[in-house]
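Input structure tokens:
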């Protein structure tokens, strides 16, 4: 049975403490910088996703999917706005995420100028899958954010919940505009897109992250590195947790809601209660 989730555009603001931008995580700067470095990709990435999906808006005739596309665009715009403020706090604290963001923006701008729209959409659905499974990992492993500053914790939980909520929208547009897995070219393109997108992402993320740890004084912090290992590749690390979900993408006939984690959406208010009250 198909799962039909209609995303909701929420205009939330988060009370981020700029003074804690480099040390908001309870396990210190190295873990904080891991998520801070991830954050720098979102504003430009979300704009790329919006453009890729918006190009095919006229292809969508189903009223529910039309509404979902509109909500998707609204959610991604809100994510970009909130991460821009977050990233500015990190940049002001001396970590050059603004310069790193320009590198990502230049790469995406070049892609938009030199590649077909179908290729751009395939990159969007691939990165939406990567984002969705990482979001699921963050929600399924609450110990990752346990004890963190409440403002930053709420922002990450909110982003993870909304990425979960709209995780199938770009994929459904791709199936209409490019093709389903019954068409070998459409299947091959989406598989290639995930391998390429994941490779490019980590090729940028890892050197950015190591540089950001160095300039924030954590390069020789053994305790900090142990915490990073625990949360990323340890027994309950997010990358270990999401490995199978990443591989599921390559199954013919795969759909994002094959990973049914609607339960977190039912707990939206519980996970973001204080943030929702402040925004009301």
């Amino acid at each position: 049975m198909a799962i039909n989730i209609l995303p909701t555009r929420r205009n939330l603001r988060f009370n981020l403490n700029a003074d804690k931008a480099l040390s908001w995580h309870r396990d210190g700067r190295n873990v904080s910088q891991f998520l801070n470095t991830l954050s720098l990709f979102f504003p430009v990435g979300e704009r790329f996703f919006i453009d890729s999906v918006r190009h095919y808006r006229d292809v969508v005739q189903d009223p529910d999917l039309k509404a979902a596309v509109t909500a998707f665009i609204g959610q991604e715009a809100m994510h970009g706005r909130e991460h821009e403020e977050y990233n500015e706090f990190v940049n002001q604290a001396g970590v050059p995420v603004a310069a790193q963001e320009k590198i990502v923006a230049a790469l995406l701008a070049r892609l938009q100028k030199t590649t077909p729209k179908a290729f751009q959409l395939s990159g969007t659905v691939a990165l939406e899958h990567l984002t969705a499974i990482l979001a699921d990992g963050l929600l399924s492993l609450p110990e990752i954010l346990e004890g963190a500053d409440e403002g930053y914790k709420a922002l990450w939980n909110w982003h993870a919940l909304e990425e979960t909520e709209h995780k199938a929208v770009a994929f459904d547009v791709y199936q209409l505009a490019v093709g389903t897995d019954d068409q070998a070219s459409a299947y091959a393109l989406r598989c290639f897109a995930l391998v390429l997108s994941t490779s490019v992402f980590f090729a940028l993320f890892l050197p950015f992250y190591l540089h950001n740890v160095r300039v924030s004084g954590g390069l020789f912090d053994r305790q900090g590195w142990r915490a990073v290992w625990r949360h990323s590749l340890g027994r309950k690390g997010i990358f270990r947790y999401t490995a199978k979900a990443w591989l599921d993408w390559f199954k013919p006939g795969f759909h994002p809601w094959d990973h049914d984690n609607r339960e977190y959406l039912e707990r939206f208010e519980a996970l973001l209660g204080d943030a929702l009250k402040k925004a009301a």
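The radius of gyration is 18 Å. The chain is about 70% helix and 0% strand.
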